[in-house]
Amino acid sequence: MHTAAGVEACLPIRSDLDLVWVRQHVRQAAARLGFGLVAQTKLVTAASELARNTLVHGGGGQMEVTHVSSAGAQGLRLAFTDEGPGIADLDRALSDGYTSGGGLGMGLSGARRLVHDFHIDSTPGDGTTVRVTCWVAQPPRPREEA
Amino acid sequence: MSDAYLRPVTGHVPVLRLGDVLLVTLQGDLHDSMAQQLQQDLAETIVRTGVHGVLIDISGVEIVDSFLGRVLAEIAAQAKLLAARTVVAGMRPAVAITLVELGLTLPGLRTALSTEAGMELLAQQPPVTRPGGPRQESP
Question: Which of A20, A52, B27, B97 could, after both became Cys, cross-link B60 (CB 3.0–4.6 A)?
Answer without folding.
Answer: B27
